[in-house]
Fold each of these.
Amino acid sequence: MQAKIAQDTFTFQGSALETAPEALGELRRSDDACSDYAELRRRMQEDGYLFLPGLLDREAVLTARREIAQRLADAGHLHPDHPSEACIAAPGARIDFLASVAQDNPQLDAVLYAGSMMEFYQNFLGGPVRHYDYTWFRVKTPDGRATEPHYDVVYMGRGTRQLYTSWTPFSDVEMDMGGLMVLENSHRQQELISTYGQTDVDRYCENDATSHRLLATAREQQRDLTSDERRQVQWQSPTFGAYSPDAVATRQTLGGRWLTAEYRMGDLLIFSMYTMHASADNHTEQIRLSSDSRYQLASESIDDRWIGEDPPAHGIRAHQSMIC
């Protein structure tokens, strides 16, 4: 890595991440081929991701960041002694996901669902494109919970598998802020794809009496499961999607290196449904802001958990039974 890494600030949920050359590397930049879509498709197939520094309009990203910061300030998540645009976390703030930041947010939509983003996908996928209506927004506070290693397909695999995630930073992310990491060659691990990659976080065991009773009761009452009830259900993916709770052990088990970078607002990282990824811990005073948005050809099938004005997401309407 070109950037100097302080071992005590490059951690995953408090455990030191390895920084030796065989364990950590830099993402391959593809800004040298940003208009060569045949080459970008080749690199996606080869690497499982595309890192495109500066593809997006930085001023548009900054405009969205100001709106996001104001919403965080209004909700009491920012330190009152600092300008809201600095996004310094309020004392004791501990959050990592806040869907409300993305709701009815035209400034954010202008970055994610218009302009350079949609133009890129139309050219990259070679036809009319649609995106999910649901936007995932990450709000990583200092000492918050780093994202566990996972494939995205486990959460959104009921439509086409030719679906792509855009990870878009709304902060300038130095190494100590804990940016996204991609596990090298994880998209090529066929045994992993045929096992873990076939799971669905919202499928439950119909023939398990406790699961059947809890789900039936929740449906009758037209409500989602409580946290306690969800823990009692026998799911196809018992860890709620994560491959492992440990990024260090994941790399040691699967091989390859964790690949990352220092990100700037305007950068874009795109990856496939079978690219293992995670994040590191945030050791700064700032809240790290980023979004996950999804794109596919409009002609292909889509996972209905993530479309419409009120998407089912992982609620009761999304659950599917299976015989275990």
Note: Residues 179 and 279 are 6 Å apart (CA to CA).
Amino acid sequence: MAEFALARSYLFAPGHDAKLLERVYAAGADAVVLDLEDAVPEDAKQRARAMVVEALRRRPAWVRVNAARSSRCAADLEAVAPLVLGIRIPKVESAEDVAWVAARAPQLPLACTIESARGVLAAREIAAAPEAVQLIYGNADLCADLAIDGGEMATLYARSQLVLAARAAGIAPPCDGAYTRIADEDGLRREAAFARSLGFFGKSAIHPRQLAVIHEAFTPSPAQVAWAQRVLAAFDAAGGAAARTQDGEMVDVPVAERARQVLRFAGEIQ
């Protein structure tokens, strides 16, 4: 399977918009997703597929295809699989959905978007699919499926299910969905911080102006990196035994592992 690296931000561009297909690569996102699904009108699907192929020939990116097991998805995969960095599968509800895509896009990283009650309840099996590298929280569709407006408490169970399923399967932390109020930077900052506090890493974006806030939320701060370095220095000096840092914090195996996680996250984005 192709290499998969964590990203703080995934910036979407509609596959039928020539101007955005050019601009998205220069916007500063960690990763680019060219969209063939929800952002593309029904009458533009075929044209979008051709335009995305041309864009990928100039520079690779992720692609969000149409729903698994559909004729459109089969056509998407036949066209883009040889050119992409990875595939985002929308509306995944079973491990069989993942296997169907994998059979048509072998050796590619597959990010599985959970956007329904069925998907949330099947998250453990989806995350355990051999081809799955990450779960994506599809907030807009999930809220529509549940007939809710969203919010931290209303989505807490679903989000936490994704975190637990990903960890149990040994794959990357899940990526948070897009925040649709483009001008609301405070709301975006709160949502990104909430996702990070639950164990998510990274967030989808639908406009370049969202990237700075997302990067801030998912970048370990200098203070966090310094803490991690102090913790590991004390732990290593004690030969892996319980120890105490110079400022009095007790360090044992779980604290040291958390410090390593902070440094790994920092290293992923340098």
Note: The chain has two domains: 9-218, 222-268.
